[in-house]
Amino acid sequence: MGETIIEKIVRNNVGRVVHPGDIVTVNVDRVMIHDIFIPFVAAKFEEMGFTKIWDTDKAVLIYDHLVPASQVDDTRHFREGNAFAAKYDMKHVHRSDGICHQLMTEAGYVKPGNIVFGTDSHTTTYGCVGAFSSGIGYTEMASILGTGTLWIRVPETIKIHITGKLPANVMAKDIILKLIGDLGADGATYKALEFTGDTIEQMSVASRMSMSNMAVEAGAKCALFAPDEKTAAYCEMTLTQKERELVGDTDAQYCQVLHYQAEDFVPVMACPSNVDKIKPVSELVGKEIDQVFIGSCTNGRLEDLMAAAEIVRGKHVAPFVKLIVTPASRKIYRQAIENGTMEVLTQAGAIVTHPSCGLCCGRTGGILTDHETVVATNNRNFLGRMGTSKVGIYLASPRTAAACAIAGKIVVPE
Amino acid sequence: MEKFSGKVWVLGDDIDTDIIIPTEYLALKTVEDMTPYAFSPLRPELAAQIQKGDILVAGKNFGCGSSREQAPEIIKALGIQCVIAKSYARIFFRNAINNGLLLIENDQLRDAVCEGDMVTVTINAYIEHNDNQYPITSLPQNLVEIIEAGGLVKAMQKKNGVC
Amino acid sequence: MGMTMAEKIIAAAANVETVKPGDIHTVELDRLMSNDGTTHLTIDMYHQLQNPHIADVNKLVWIMDHNVPCDSVKTAASHKKMRDFAREHNIKFYEGAGVCHQVMMENHVTSGELIFGADSHTCAYGAVGAFGTGVGCTDYLYAMVTGKSWLLVPETLRFELTGKLKDGVYARDLILSIIGMIGANGANYMAMEFGGEGLQTLCMSDRIAICNLCVEAGAKTALMDVDEITLTYLKEHGREPKHIFKSDEDAQFAKVYEIDLSTINPIVAKPHFVDSVVDAKECIGIHIDEAFLGSCNNGRIEDLRVGADLIRGKKVHPLVRFLVVPASAEVYKQALVEGIIDTFMEAGAIVMNPNCSVCWGSCQGVIGENEVLISTGTRNFKGRAGHKDSFVYLANAATVTASAIKGEITTADQIA
Known about the structure:
The complex is a heterotrimer of chains A (414), B (163) and C (416). Chain A is an alpha/beta fold and 414 residues long. Chain A contains 15 helices and 18 strands.
């Protein structure tokens, strides 16, 4: 019988055929810990009685949620992270290079077929290069640091097949939002998503990343794209036979298969305060807004900034509206300088911050108050996520968000 | 069979981790420092009202969102004996088990109880409320082992011979 | 008897022939600047007035700069209050454009004006020969409602500059030396006036840096002679002088200092006072956690160039957070074009959007318990940059950048 991608990855890891529902212990290829949780991971690690990290090359520590610090105790996380990294000889520490999920693939820490865990729910992102990656808590992270292993339950897979050509004003973000709306915020709980079809094959790795990133908003454990030539180019590698085989077999068992026609997608938004409350932008037109945020591990990549720049070129952000742009990484920031995107954005009045989680994690980067409305390209619009519980957060694609910033209200991007 | 009763607090569907503890407070030093802010975006007064031994009842997808382990830790620190929800998000579920917070899945109780009602839980068997019984499904063996060890930290301590 | 620049500006604003130190005059104000540090308090008081109104809305400039982008729920509420009020009353409003004083210099201030700013570093405007002074929100509100205020005519300290700063020595070293010399209250209530042939060697950015810091000596205002450099700056920014005032030959100064610029050396002001100055060399080797290049004092293109030239091809020390914060969006865009932003990004710096940043200590970049910051900001008071138990050393752009590279305080000449 055929296998899904996740079943193949787990089989390769544990050395035997697995089925959904099996509980297996996997050998972990990489782990990611970010600044918010490093003090807790460090404390649990020592409390558990470990004295060394199982493989220092496999652990990556990234400061991103608290960069730059906005509260006086924030830098404690850096000091404790630095102390832990020094004590246990960690090789990979990024202190201000960007958002963890962006760096994990961009800096080459994750390769197709890897099994990766991170102390962040959006760790599902690395499925964009065909890796099984998922978020865990700091206690489990501490135990992986000591043992290099973790138990998992092999998930069922939902296959999503998309074929055709996307309309010009639709981005990968619109697709994943629509999917979350269709599946519901818990529609893929415990399950893997697998994306196929010629629309997906045409998509850049950056676009795939936006989709795998948000899969967790439907509850998914992971979201996988079969590695292809685009993946190989992105990862700066040649795919091995084993990596090329990481595709869902035609006779694999899927618990659900969804078919979409690319031409049917339209720009959408997730309305306050649930990620699965999806409406076409055309139904929301005219709502006045106070701020736009373009950034995050979902949509802070070069193609996102370029899409925004294309919209705002030669125009200016509406009076009293702020356009906050937070590139996802130092590399992206520099690429955006290099190709002129940054100049276009700043000429249009954008406030460009240093690469970090920024507003998405709600600690800084444009916090709002009662009765304010923000259109944002990140992954969550939960109650209170960006300020008080009376802030209205609309999630959208960078293209839609940029158009709204210029108009000062919700509009459908051209 | 182990049995306990408690007064219930009732919440809705999709109670996310940012509601359980907003990111703003995640850099506070200890979980105890964070507890006053539990559920603050939704019900700012709730954290102060919860008493030791109370039970939290919620709808589907409880704990969706981030991987922050403070979420189950805070619920435990507030004195909540167990959470009974229609369903749980997976990271929250793992985190709760690893911290020894008892989670019970039941899709009927939520719509039958009112806030302030008393319910009685008989572990691995059933929940009782107003003369009705709601069955509890049992957990997979590997999770039972973690819970029996007293959480993942204790399980690891045992493995490393430090306790 | 002759009058000083400060006296002449006040006399003109009071519409009287002559004034002398100690007089109190009612003056007409040219401009009223307020930022997000206190505007929400002004608005609260405004609403308590019996007959609230604005004398001349064209005089008002409101600038969001202290917490941009907004970093807390509390600030978000005061920002909304300020934004809504500005919108309702059609007040000139900036957000994201940069630090208020830099935005004012780039867009509004001109020679001979009398300006109140609800911020102590308003004295920066003296760089173009404008009388700028910091006020609290009550004074600001009164001026906003009446267009007028009262002023006590200050005595003037005259600084006669000769010579030229040596290479590697900056305007900031000069003003820190002066503050060290006269003390943190050495110019209390007074005007500090700068002129002499040495002034010709200082560009507008230098002049702004000098005037900006005069409040750290207690000065009410700072003023510089208006010359070709001033007029060129104004012209480049599309403005004409309102009036060019110059102190009379026989003006009475409380004291005249002669300062030979070539005698100045790189300076560091040690925690926790601006006048606690020492030769920068004395601080070499002190551990740092963070370095800050920015602020209304030293966040201009000239300052960024100094830092960029030093760090090009090198890296920020891995354990140091090096914040680079252009003083305005205009500065940022210029730095972008010149490749400076990329130089800092390549070196590993944290390049923030134009704002007050850690200089104000309640914005992004704050330092934690027992941490040490070396900064081109304006103040090193205890707790100014974050945690109450933290330490701030003030220095010039080159020393700050060199220290960021080394991971401890060092001077530019120590960096190979």
